[in-house]
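Training component of the fellowship. As part of building independent skills, the fellow (R.M.) carried out the full modelling exercise for a liganded target. The chosen ligand was adenosine-5'-diphosphate. The inputs are recorded below so that the supervisory panel can assess the work.
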Amino acid sequence: MKYAEIIIAVSNKNVDRIFTYRIPEKLSYVKLGMRVYVPFGAGNRKYEGYIIGFCNEVNFDKNKIKDILSIPDKYPVFSETMIELAKWMREKYYSNLSDCLKCIMPSIVHEKTAKYAYINKDFPNIYKIINDIIDKNNQQSKVLALLNKYDGITLNEIKIVAEVSDSPIKSLEKKGIIKIYDREVKREFENLYYTDKKSIPFTPTKEQQNAINTIIKGLNSDNKKPILIHGVTGCGKTEIYLQAIEYVIKSGGQAIVLVPEISLTPQTVLRFTKRFQDKVSVTHSAMSRSERFEQWKKAKNGEISIMVGPRSALFTPFENLKIIIIDEEHENTYKSDSTPKYDARDTAIRLCEIKNALTVFGSATPSIESYYNALNKKYELVSIKNRINKSYPNITVVDMRQELASGNRSIFSRELFNAIKNNLDKKQQTILFLNRRGHSTFVSCRSCGYVMACSNCNVNYTYHISSNKLMCHYCGKTENNPSVCPQCGSKYIKFFGIGTQKVEKEIEKLFPNARTLRMDLDTTRKKNGHNIILKKFSNGDADILIGTQMIAKGLDFPNVSVVGVIAADLSLNNGDYKCGENTFQLLTQVSGRAGRAEVSGNVYIQTYNPEHYSIVFAKDNNYIEFYKHEISIRRQMVYPPFSSIFFIVFTGVDEKKIITNLYKLSDIMLNYNRKGLFEFLGPAPCMISKIRKNYRWKLIVKSSDEEKLKSFVIYCLNKLKENYNLIGISVNISLNPSYSY
Ligand code: ADP
Ligand code: ZN
Ligand code: ZN
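Fellow's submitted model of the complex:
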């Protein structure tokens, strides 16, 4: 081929198209999916580009075609499959092809090379010569003695260990006794999750076997439909995944397993490494770029068969990909919030279509959209109704209004207090869950009502007791805790609202002998922080684990028999159409941490809204009834899955400018909405109306036709850009985001 079709690695809609370059003779080895450097633009600056195709003919002046400059890597960084996937992502998530390719691309780290010395075994009578020199006891002999022991070590190591300069090494090379080569430095990295204790498959229960059979049938079918496994917590879903993967590997296939977040689900990850050992690799954010690249190469070379990781593990370059498993499919982490804003679930389905592979979703509380798809036969539904140990925890909903009426002002209801106490006596463990970190979430003056708030953000400060400081959870700004009110000078500063630190303090006060651990963003910043806390708890070094949603997922501690939810209302009133769903999911996940082994479990949900449907159905452990209720609300309000919602958010330091321009956009949209296909909400300030000195306003557009909605929004935004100067405004658009803005 004469020419290469190249995407320039620049994030700009104006250059989001193919550019043709000539392949010079010396680069004729270039392959599809390789990175290249090319001259670009009028000034011919050097840019990175990606080869996504070739051609022999062009329909424009050949003399204008520039040459590719160079190729930085030895191998392609994209397969044909990944290029196709990137093209799909561009359309689906209205982004640039270069951004989609960058998102898929491994973090390339060039091999470091070093000079290695070897004994030249082809030299006649080499060992006799070596022995002669060693006997002479000079500088050269030190080098040879070392190489005699460890053949093939770096010159640096020789100089350090043998305490010699360069010259004896050089002389030996000159004489031909040793040879020196440039070689890649080996980077062995420690797989945190590796274990040599191999686990043996359980004999599946009837329900598990049914699920495994459905997966195997799916794998062998030509017309693959994604499978949704809806199974209560502790029903043995992980074992189903393991046995499905076993089948895939036996037939020479490869598997990708997505988990919401590696550090929060170490036990799940360990179950994969225990079963498949060195066939598995794990990618996670604590790994360095080179470690991740190492795993990418292993996958590409077929040295591993299973990749476990967060959503980005989707782009593992397996040639024989046969299955993608997405565990806890309802989790928000499967949606990316940076460009391209892809949803790992949809992207997995598309990738499986390209590769003729099977997508399997699993959850105890499937997202409303996925369950809707399953009921409408877009997915195959497998339901598992029984826990492996048959028992499900008793869930008690405690009405905190009544506690207050009876004079209990503590953050613990009497029932939860007694349960913690009894559990301590029985030497069993307790988990206390509160989705808010810090000590007090609201600091205000009792004389004038002034509330301490961050000056960069429209957010109240949270009081952190360990540092005795006020902290903004949005920009991280801290301030000393004021001794007098900044507004009126009064000394009566009061703390309201509870965070995990306060729960910990209260436990210390009420149960001085209890050993507590706290797991939230503040205690897990250090590398491996999660693992250390979880290990301590699982070793029985603590009686009570207090934490945010970090402790809600995937943990399996057999000795935990009481779970307390301190305030179930926190996720109920955030004005999001998903808040009912999120609350139900969170409560079910947290409850699932109790009574996983022989000991029976008791869960206490404290709330001021005991009659809210998401709390009532979580108490009854009844997903189906919850779904029916939720889907009827969605239908009535025309929310997803009955519509698509676009959030358009303008941010900038000039509040007036963002508001006027958002109103202009709104006018344009109203003007073009002649058939009334689209429905609007706003403009209105975002829930957090200022972050890091940037004001934030939103406009919401709804429609039942996603394609039309997408082109409408993009068309109107372009009209706005053509007619007005948007400098200083950052425009953020997001389709069906996982949270409200
Ligand atoms: P889930 O992933 O659905 O929450 P798990 O896979 O964690 O459930 O299973 C719950 C517990 O039951 C685990 O401790 C697991 O080792 C055990 N288990 C799973 N399948 C079986 C089986 N067929 N027989 C016995 N124990 C099993
Ligand atoms: Zn005051
Ligand atoms: Zn702030």
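The panel noted the following from the submitted structure. Residues 454, 456-457, 459, 472, 474-475, 477 surround zinc ion (ligand 3) (CB under 6 Å). The mean pLDDT is 88.
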